[in-house]
Specification:
alpha+beta, 4 helices, globular
Length: 107
Protein backbone atom coordinates (compact mmCIF):
# COMPACT_ATOMS: atom_id res chain seq x y z
CA UNK A 1 0.00 0.00 0.00
CA UNK A 2 1.34 3.42 -0.91
CA UNK A 3 2.17 5.91 1.82
CA UNK A 4 -0.50 8.33 0.59
CA UNK A 5 -3.20 5.65 0.62
CA UNK A 6 -2.09 4.55 4.11
CA UNK A 7 -2.32 8.15 5.34
CA UNK A 8 -5.78 8.66 3.84
CA UNK A 9 -7.03 5.40 5.36
CA UNK A 10 -5.61 6.33 8.77
CA UNK A 11 -7.29 9.75 8.69
CA UNK A 12 -10.60 8.22 7.58
CA UNK A 13 -10.56 5.68 10.41
CA UNK A 14 -9.65 8.45 12.90
CA UNK A 15 -12.65 10.52 11.79
CA UNK A 16 -14.97 7.52 12.10
CA UNK A 17 -13.62 6.64 15.55
CA UNK A 18 -14.04 10.26 16.68
CA UNK A 19 -17.65 10.21 15.54
CA UNK A 20 -18.23 6.94 17.40
CA UNK A 21 -16.66 8.24 20.62
CA UNK A 22 -18.71 11.43 20.35
CA UNK A 23 -21.99 9.50 20.09
CA UNK A 24 -21.16 6.96 22.81
CA UNK A 25 -19.60 9.26 25.41
CA UNK A 26 -21.71 10.28 28.40
CA UNK A 27 -20.36 13.84 28.09
CA UNK A 28 -19.02 13.97 31.68
CA UNK A 29 -15.60 14.50 30.14
CA UNK A 30 -14.35 15.71 26.78
CA UNK A 31 -12.64 12.87 24.90
CA UNK A 32 -10.73 13.88 21.77
CA UNK A 33 -8.82 11.62 19.41
CA UNK A 34 -5.60 13.54 18.83
CA UNK A 35 -3.54 11.07 16.80
CA UNK A 36 -3.78 7.67 15.15
CA UNK A 37 -1.19 5.04 14.28
CA UNK A 38 -2.07 2.27 11.82
CA UNK A 39 0.49 -0.47 11.27
CA UNK A 40 1.60 -0.96 7.67
CA UNK A 41 0.30 -4.53 7.80
CA UNK A 42 -3.11 -3.06 8.76
CA UNK A 43 -3.47 -5.44 11.69
CA UNK A 44 -3.52 -2.87 14.54
CA UNK A 45 -4.74 0.69 14.93
CA UNK A 46 -4.02 2.80 18.00
CA UNK A 47 -6.09 5.89 18.71
CA UNK A 48 -4.40 8.40 21.00
CA UNK A 49 -6.83 10.44 23.07
CA UNK A 50 -6.80 13.46 25.31
CA UNK A 51 -9.33 13.81 28.11
CA UNK A 52 -10.54 16.94 29.83
CA UNK A 53 -10.54 17.21 32.77
CA UNK A 54 -7.38 15.16 33.30
CA UNK A 55 -8.85 13.66 36.48
CA UNK A 56 -11.30 11.74 34.25
CA UNK A 57 -8.57 10.00 32.22
CA UNK A 58 -8.83 6.69 34.06
CA UNK A 59 -12.60 6.29 33.72
CA UNK A 60 -12.53 7.57 30.14
CA UNK A 61 -9.81 5.12 29.10
CA UNK A 62 -11.70 2.30 30.83
CA UNK A 63 -14.85 3.25 28.93
CA UNK A 64 -12.97 3.30 25.61
CA UNK A 65 -11.32 -0.06 26.26
CA UNK A 66 -14.71 -1.61 27.10
CA UNK A 67 -16.18 -0.22 23.87
CA UNK A 68 -13.35 -1.45 21.59
CA UNK A 69 -15.43 -4.24 20.11
CA UNK A 70 -18.37 -1.97 19.37
CA UNK A 71 -16.01 0.62 17.90
CA UNK A 72 -14.54 -2.03 15.61
CA UNK A 73 -18.06 -2.99 14.44
CA UNK A 74 -18.85 0.69 13.82
CA UNK A 75 -15.65 1.11 11.78
CA UNK A 76 -16.50 -1.97 9.72
CA UNK A 77 -20.00 -0.71 8.97
CA UNK A 78 -18.97 2.82 8.08
CA UNK A 79 -15.67 2.21 6.32
CA UNK A 80 -16.72 -0.72 4.11
CA UNK A 81 -13.34 -2.37 4.75
CA UNK A 82 -13.23 -6.16 4.67
CA UNK A 83 -10.79 -6.45 7.55
CA UNK A 84 -10.75 -4.00 10.44
CA UNK A 85 -7.51 -3.88 12.46
CA UNK A 86 -7.36 -4.61 16.17
CA UNK A 87 -8.41 -1.40 17.98
CA UNK A 88 -6.50 0.11 20.91
CA UNK A 89 -6.93 3.38 22.79
CA UNK A 90 -4.12 5.15 24.66
CA UNK A 91 -3.73 8.46 26.46
CA UNK A 92 -1.75 10.90 24.31
CA UNK A 93 1.16 11.78 26.59
CA UNK A 94 2.60 14.14 23.96
CA UNK A 95 -0.57 16.23 24.09
CA UNK A 96 -0.36 16.36 27.89
CA UNK A 97 3.24 17.57 27.64
CA UNK A 98 2.26 20.21 25.07
CA UNK A 99 -0.49 21.53 27.37
CA UNK A 100 1.97 21.71 30.27
CA UNK A 101 4.46 23.68 28.17
CA UNK A 102 1.66 26.08 27.16
CA UNK A 103 0.77 26.56 30.82
CA UNK A 104 4.39 27.30 31.74
CA UNK A 105 4.78 29.76 28.87
CA UNK A 106 1.61 31.56 29.89
CA UNK A 107 3.02 32.24 33.38
Amino acid sequence: MSQQRHTVLTQHLQELAAAYVNTQSNKTSLITITNTELTHSLDKITFYVSVFPETAEGPALGFLMRKRGECKKYLKEKSKMNHIPHVEFMIDEGEKSRRRVDELLAE
